[in-house]
Amino acid sequence: MEGQKVDNVNHPAHYEQSTSIERIEAMMVTFGERSVCHFCVCNAFKYIWRHKNKGGLEDLEKAQWYIDKAFEINEMYDTLSCGEQEALLRLAELKKQKEQSWQESH
User: Fold this and answer.
1) What's the CA gap between 21 and 95, in Å, rounded?
2) Which range has highest mean pLDDT (6-10, 16-20, 84-88)?
3) CA distances from 68 to 1, 5, 12, 85, 104 (A)
4) Which residues contact 62 (CB under 8 A, 6 or more apart)?
5) Confidence of residue 14 (pLDDT cuts 50, 70, 90)
6) Are the CB atoms for 36 and 28 separated by under 8 Å?
């Protein structure tokens, strides 16, 4: 990958192989939109939870990627209940708070 910047948030090298389909797309075909939307919410939570002890700002960026993907899937397929949508909004707000706190302390 000479001359190319590594992007561990949007296109991690360990997910790029000789296939034309993104992993998240394959998951949607295999498990369905609702399951993948829930997966995205849970992954966002995981990255927010661990950011102080593992990946720092990069983990918060990964959390944002999964939050955005969950919103995108929900908008396209109306997969989340009202309560789940509210939980996703709270998670997005929590991520913003953690990112602001991280930036203030570093």
Assistant:
1) 28
2) 84-88
3) 27, 22, 17, 12, 24
4) 8, 9, 43, 47, 55
5) low
6) yes
At residue 89's C-alpha, the angle toward residues 83 and 90, to 5°, is 90
**CA 105 to CA 62: how far, in whole Å?**
19
Tokens of 100: 């602001």
How many CA atoms, within 13 angstroms, populate the side-chain half-sphere of residue 55? 15
- Report whether 51 contacts 63 (CB < 8 A): yes
Give the number of other CB atoms < 10 A from CB of residue 66: 24
For the chain, what are the domain ranges? 13-105
Half-sphere exposure of 99 (CA within 13 A, CB side): 15
* Phi/psi of residue 7, nearest 5 degrees: -120, 90
- CA 104 → CA 3, 9, 52, 99, distances in Å? 32, 22, 13, 9
pTM for the model: 0.86
Locus of tokens 């609702």 = 34
